[in-house]
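Sample entry (532 residues):
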Amino acid sequence: MTILRSNLDTRSDTYLANRAAMEGHLAAIQDLVDQAIDGGGEKYRQRHHQRGRLLVHERIELLLDPDTPFLELSTLAATDTEFNVGAAVITGVGQISGTECMILANDPTVRGGSMNPLTVKKILRALRICHENRLPMVFLVESGGADLPHQLQLYLQAGEVFRDITALSSAGIPTISLVFGNSTAGGAYLPGTSDYVVMVDQQAKVFLGGTPLVKMATGEDADEQELGGADMHSHRSGVSDYFAVDEHDALRIGRRIVAGLTYPKLGPPPDRPAIPPRYDPDEILGIVSSDLKVPFPVREVLARVVDDSEFDEFKPGYGTNLVTGFAHLHGYSVGVLANDRGVLLNEDANKAAQFIQLANQVDTPLVFVQNVTGYMVGTEYEQKGMVKHGSHQINAVTNSTVPHLTVQMGGSYGAGNYGMAGRPYNPRFLFVWPGAKTAVMGAEQLAGTLSIVARQSAADRGLDFDEEADAARRQVIEDQINHEELATVMSGQLYDDGIIDPRDTRDVLGVALSATLTNQCRGQRGYGVFRM
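Predicted structure, serialized as tokens:
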């Protein structure tokens, strides 16, 4: 393969300005991450410890194999909403007893671990990742169930959780519940639908109706332990398979269960040793333009991400706004599609479609690196068939069956988001950089388009056009889009799997890629009709 050569000047004013802007984004993201880690706040964290219980991150750390990575997902879920950052639950991929698993852990310091609408959305996303990638699911359960004041927004959606858990079991994908505290009402079905259940003595409480509800419904003065404690469920009801004397014992049993699965990976292993890039990933911070309207050289990014900075470029002289080629990531072979100058032209779209088909022929996962303003508009490009050429790319992405991993470096606008495997096209994982933006089009263009339409409508009806009112409307719309397109807002709504530090891109992709290859990797051998 060819070695990517870097021409980056780390002392230039442009580099230093770009780096300062990215560091500012990272500082803002870290503040939000700290809020997520803090959970319900110091008061509730202390109370939890005083009750002799481990915090959620402590449970996860003890469950994982020592010195192995944990790829936390959707860390900033619920950002820019009324709910706590993190959405009261932690999800992520980690290694347990040598097996890669999805871990889903309630944070009981946030309203007792109760589920709000974003919690449910985050859980459903984790379950989808399990199903697509054949990852075992391990639940660390301590939840008060639904956050009742928001029942309208979550009750019916929460039912999908139990549907998806049982679907995993049917597909031969193990599900394991370690119950540390409350698992009440509908939440009782989480362990109830799991393959394996471990309950902690004097802490686990699994019942459809707690003592207040039982009193209201039947008049019975029930005892909590007799109603749903670990001892009762382990010796009488049979809901629990393993009785744990304390939290450490539950985690030990959980690790033992996973070890006993002897769960094989179906995808190919790395075909060569992992070799770090020849250039420092720290330098990525100064590559991305502080103003996303200004293009930046994507090969400089790839040189700091792929193994040994080696890249076998495909059609380097054709469709030059899109860089395509084969490389390795942590020893795994991948195909890469990366936007180099934002807009996709006719040639770029056709090149992408051909490359995606080639990767499918040889069962090679694809990595999409987005910084795209969309497909080119204008008379010249429409007459050249931009619609059908863009459709070629969308057809290829839609019907490709190898794993897709997407990283959004900068902008992701219009149908370019679709052609570059944005969230609507179901990549196995999608990560964004802190300064990334996502919208149907840029704020100025969107507001201007609506203004032109309004002006034409007034002219067609013979009415005077109110310029002052139009300017005010444009400003309101621009402000709205400028806010909604931010990475933190999009991530808060779970339109991605997490905002990552650009310097961690290689390792994040390595963990995600390994997780996808727990399932088989087989490409599509036939496609639908391509309009020629």
